Amino acid sequence: MNEQPLNIRNLPGAEVLDNINCAYIARQFFSRTRSWFTQRLNNNAVNGKPVGFSAEELSTLRLALTSLAVELSTFSNNLTPTAMPIQVYVITDPEAIDYLIADDLEGFRQHFAEQEYPDVPTPETFATVQQAQAFCAGLSYGHSDLIPTSFPLRSYETSDKPYITFLNNY
Fold this sequence. Notes:
The structure is a single chain. The chain is mainly alpha-helical. The protein has two domains: about 10-75, no CATH class; about 85-170, no CATH class. About 45% of the residues lie in helices and about 10% in strands. The chain is built from seven helices and five strands, in the order ααββαβααβαβα. The protein starts with about 20 loop residues before the first helix and ends with a helix. About 10% of the residues are buried.
């Protein structure tokens, strides 16, 4: 049986592998050397045969990459400038929520413009993203996911910024 090892570099998105610290992953997750790891990563020949990761090693690699992704995501959430407090606007108007769910900024603007006394919420402010996330997680507690009764707009979310800019300037 002359089975070729899986070449993970041929998988979609494999270019991300060029940006990882092979020595760290080899040491931290495999208790091996960088050269051992890169030989398998690149399907190099060892003793005349190409080598790759075993099924168990692929599971470990998946765990390693997922762990790094979580760590990077957590860290990137902390990169919000500390000079600017994090704002969360809680929208409770059902029609405005419909525009937010549909990602319809123009409809959202028109909805507020058509009201004689629009309910523009006062933002809650937080020092960290984690505090804001905890607050937002509590908004849906005890409510059905089918019909949202509140919708948070968070200043640390790029997709929410146009809506927050509108509310700040209203």
